[in-house]
Specification:
Keywords: Sigma factor, Transcription, Transcription regulation. The protein is mainly alpha-helical. It has helices at residues 4-12, 16-35, 41-57, 70-92, 116-130, 134-145, 150-157, 161-180. The termini are far apart.
Length: 191
């Protein structure tokens, strides 16, 4: 892959070749972020594509002077856009995550940043999180996995901070109970 700073500059200048390179490199990463919120493969793929449209139209707002951390900053920026795009989609659908099985091809989307062990843990976590009630799923994803504060969650979902905290506590309790049936020593997402 070309040097990342060259690709970023090309995306800022709206060069299709650079946009394609960035899209291909980070599609798997973006898909896994969106899939935590949108469970149907086809719909998640649509949300990822919508997210990349936002990435490319807002690239002039991306800034990272330190080339050493450029990829980390870029990935964080992409993550934030993908999470917000997924939340917008849930809000548009009245926050009812879609019900259905997780197709096996979802796990085949390449993400260069994960080892085989990480992929296994990720798959197990997503399957457990999918069992949560919809309101718990969204708050758990936003707080634990994506790092939103309770205030940010409350603002984005139009709920109170107390509701956000309550949903998170109930999600943690449920996941802890599920994990304790197999491994009694694990403490889920303690803060």
């Amino acid at each position: 892959m070309e040097q990342l700073s060259t690709i970023i500059q090309g995306c800022i200048n709206k060069q299709p070749r650079c946009q394609k390179l960035l899209y291909e490199q980070y599609y798997g990463y973006a898909f896994k972020i969106v899939f935590r919120y949108i469970y149907r493969y086809e719909n998640a793929a649509d949300v990822v594509n919508d997210g990349f449209v936002k990435v490319f139209t807002r690239f002039d707002k991306f800034s990272c002077e330190d080339t050493e951390d450029q990829e980390k900053v870029l990935m964080g920026w992409i993550k934030r856009i993908m999470v917000n795009t997924a939340i917008d989609e849930l809000r548009r659908k009245n926050m009812i995550p879609e019900i259905g099985g997780i197709p096996e091809e979802v796990w085949d989307v390449p993400d260069v940043g994960q080892s085989a062990e990480q992929k296994l843990y990720y798959k197990e976590l997503i399957i457990l999180v999918k069992e949560l009630p919809p309101s718990y799923q969204v708050v758990f994803n936003m707080y634990v996995i994506d790092g939103f504060s309770h205030q940010e969650i409350a603002d984005k979902l139009n709920i109170s901070i107390g509701t956000s905290k309550s949903n998170l506590a109930k999600a943690r309790a449920y996941l802890q109970k599920k994990l304790n049936t197999d491994i009694p020593e694990i403490d889920v997402c303690s803060s």
